[in-house]
């Protein structure tokens, strides 16, 4: 649905040339939810705005549904943009217009007949759960309601793509969950392709199918969310997804203490099965959990555990082999190390 090739965006700031996006290439599949994450200043929002050419790339191509937007005339680009809805962190509603008038705004720009506009507005407000709010003004709404109006407005022209620029960053956690649930429903019901810029990792876990990690204007890692989360390859990805490092670990002697420390991950049904207990019984080893997380990604359970296994070297080697055979992924065989703060607490 979306293909960016060699996209760069540079601009002048106080006489200096600044590169906001540097040679980015990526693709977004039809009907998927694609996340773009990174720290502040990484270039996420600039890249997102390059997709609909609100920011025109300095170099590179932007192909949306088979059309290279960089080659379109201004009139052709404006027509094509009707197929790309966008919502923002701070809603950008017209304060002097009612809810219905805000949703109708893009339809009026497109000179949609009045009766069709009225029908479409009612349909969109019903979709986002705001039927009956037609005559309200933005000042009378909560943050979550304002974002729902913004979503209804973005969908009014029946786009096939929705761009979300930090759409939940200004919302409290409960409201964020309701907006994410709405976006998931929209993705499923309308077959919409959604691209989300966010710095909230819980948003990525909850709604995104794939994710691209940005740093200094570049894409440093791309992949399925669960793969990037469980086995990130770049230092920025590890910090964003809070993957613990053993570089500051306190050395311990496996010969003296008879322990081997494994960092493991697992997904799906393994989250509910007593695999660790069964492996311990099978190998004659015991284990302790030094650190762990069990959560879900788009309703798929996953876990990350740091385990200290106690037993003979041969028995513990059988533990590693058995865990791998049972479907666990050994992300790191720490063996001689354990994080100092955890070791102290043990």
Automatic annotation (TrEMBL):
SMART domains: AAA, NIL. Residues 2-241 form the ABC transporter domain. GO terms for molecular function: ATP binding. Keywords: Amino-acid transport, ATP-binding, Cell membrane, Membrane, Nucleotide-binding, Translocase, Transport. It comes from the Bacteria. This is ATP-binding cassette domain-containing protein. It comes from Alicyclobacillus fastidiosus. The lineage of its organism: Bacteria, Bacillati, Bacillota, Bacilli, Bacillales.
């Amino acid at each position: 649905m979306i293909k960016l090739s060699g996209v760069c965006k540079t601009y002048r700031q106080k006489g200096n040339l600044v590169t906001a996006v540097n040679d980015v290439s990526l693709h977004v599949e039809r009907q998927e939810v694609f996340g773009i994450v990174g720290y502040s200043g990484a270039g996420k929002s600039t890249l997102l705005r390059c997709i609909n050419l609100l920011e025109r790339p300095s170099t590179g191509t932007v192909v949306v549904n088979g059309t290279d937007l960089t080659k379109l005339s201004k009139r052709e680009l404006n027509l094509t943009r009707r197929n790309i809805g966008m919502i923002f962190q701070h809603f950008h509603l017209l304060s002097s217009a009612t809810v219905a008038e805000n949703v109708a705004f893009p339809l009026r720009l497109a000179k949609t007949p009045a009766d069709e506009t009225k029908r479409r507005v009612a349909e969109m407000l019903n979709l986002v759960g705001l039927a009956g709010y037609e005559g309200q003004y933005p000042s009378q709404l909560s943050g979550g309601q304002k974002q729902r109006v913004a979503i209804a407005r973005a969908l009014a022209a029946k786009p096939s793509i929705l761009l979300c620029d930090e759409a939940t960053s200004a919302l409290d956690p409960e409201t964020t969950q309701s907006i994410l649930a709405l976006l998931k429903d929209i993705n499923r019901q309308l077959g919409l392709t959604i691209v989300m810029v966010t710095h909230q990792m819980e948003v990525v876990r909850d709604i995104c199918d794939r994710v691209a990690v940005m740093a200094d204007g570049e894409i440093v890692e791309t992949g399925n969310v669960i793969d990037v989360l469980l086995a990130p390859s770049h230092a920025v990805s590890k910090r964003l997804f809070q993957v613990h490092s053993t570089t500051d670990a306190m050395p311990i002697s496996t010969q003296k203490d008879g322990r081997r420390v494994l960092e493991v991950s697992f997904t799906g049904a393994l989250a509910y099965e007593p695999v660790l207990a069964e492996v311990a019984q099978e190998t004659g080893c015991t284990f302790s959990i030094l650190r762990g997380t069990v959560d879900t990604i788009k309703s798929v359970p996953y876990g990350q555990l740091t385990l200290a296994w106690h037993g003979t070297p041969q028995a513990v080697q059988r533990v590693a082999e058995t865990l791998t055979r049972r479907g666990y992924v050994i992300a790191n065989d720490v063996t001689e190390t354990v994080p100092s703060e955890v070791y102290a607490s043990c």
